[in-house]
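Q: What changes when magnesium ion is included in the input?
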Amino acid sequence: MNEGPLDFIREIVKGDLRAGRHRSVVTRFPPEPNGYLHIGHAKSICLNFGIAAEFGGRCHLRFDDTNPTKEEQEYIDAIEADVRWLGFDWGEHLYHASDYFARLYDWAIHLIEAGKAYVDDLSADEIRHYRGTLTTPGRNSPWRERSVEENLELFARMRNGDFTDGARVLRAKIDMASGNINLRDPVMYRILHARHPRTGDAWCLYPTYDYAHGQSDAIEGITHSICTLEFEDHRPLYDWFIENLPVPSRPRQYEFARLNLSHTVLSKRFLLRLVSEGHVRGWDDPRMPTLSGIRRRGFPAEAIRQFAERIGVARRESTVDYAMLEHCVRDALNKTVERRMAVLRPLKVVLTNYPEGQLEEFDALNNPEDPTAGTRKVPFSRELWIEREDFMEDPPRKFYRLSPGREVRLRYAYLMTCREVVKDTKGEIVELRCDYDAATRGGSAPDGRSPKATLHWVSAAHAVPAEVRLYDHLFTRPDPGAERDLLDDLSAKSEEVLGDCKLEPSLASLPAGAGVQFERLGYFCVDRDSRPGRPAFNRTVGLRDTWARLQKKA
Ligand code: ATP
Ligand code: MG
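A: The predicted holo structure follows.
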């Protein structure tokens, strides 16, 4: 269990166990399979599975599959894979709201028999109209006082398929004047002649989320039904169902503030739009805040769990700075991934005094943070690639890297000095002619001189050609959509594809998903678009930690 004070939900769980109100804690993560999970869901997953693990209970994975028109098997599979990837296991406790359709139907009849539910013939528009507003009470439907017998018969015919979609609904009979709109005779069942991914054509009417959710919790013996704050106003309704139905247990709902992340939109509906309108290349586009997107981007699951722990759980709404998430990613990667050399925007260097055809190999550290990671051989020869931005012909003050007449260190290799700049007919620099100091093998000079800059490089003869994608925020502003349509805040610069990158040979054939640090450039991860002889890498995150800097300032 994590050290330090517990959040308010863990305090409640601890208190309930201590007081003997429950023998063990049972939580659940209840996604609707209408899209891919995002990092907001990760907060909920870490909370529910985390509490179960810490207090020796269990956590169910339950699909709230009550809306067959929006739900798909693809989403179900992706959700399971994502929860597993995050490091959690529901064991045998995989459930679906659709498992309970028969029982929910029987309980609806129970409410009708008790005079607490009725079949309404009003259309969806009329129902909305009758519902009233936050400031004005609603009006009773003309069908509200139907007899129990008539309701039973109509409900049976709804089940039977006698009516078209939307022709009738079943509503709970609560209070059309309630100050809480959720209690103004909410819809429990709607007619939907739609094939369900699990129950097929067995049903042509489906329970609403509001009717299915609490009863599903009760059936599964959920002790602490944890959800986000927008469901706080639904709690009286959930409690009303529980009180009026012969359910086997009584779950208690606790609400916490959802995760909001700067520069990011966490809404399945909007993410679906990004995918279906082609603003991104799919649910797992590395710019997406989906778990499959950030996984493809190279964020390790460990970093997401750390992030969830750091942001904590509270009832007050807030927005977390994206830089904090990146900080957690760097933290996790720094300890584990190996360093390599790669040149993203190559500029040719010819070492004019280095013998033609000579080849040397230098031992390079795999991870300075981890001595057990060992070393590897990096080939060195007369022609090298360096980073274009490491050279300036006419450098301003404070540019310490390579420029004419200046000496720099080539990482692990030699000191070298630039002697000549070669340009093409358009004046574009195409090559630097340099000489190296053979007495500085390994990077230190016998006379003790030490250049300010150390450059990474790749031997041209040994370089592996690669594609590298650099990613930035999907949105231009920290609060997308605050002033205009969300799509107008999409950044045109969220992805830059570099097609002419040069990698050291050891990077030739890593498996998709493998993470690595390119020295001086950031953390990268092998993309599944890699082809033999031409790997593709995604930049996971840069090296500069803006979060740490912000913290220092504060
Ligand atoms: P979205 O708002 O993205 O459409 P949702 O709430 O409709 O998501 P569900 O499948 O119902 O998606 O969510 C499953 C669980 O995840 C719910 O318990 C919900 O409260 C929680 N959840 C959803 N978004 C967040 C978030 N941003 N932060 C924390 N928990 C969240
Ligand atoms: Mg929801």
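Observations recorded in class: The first strand starts at residue 26 and ends at 29.
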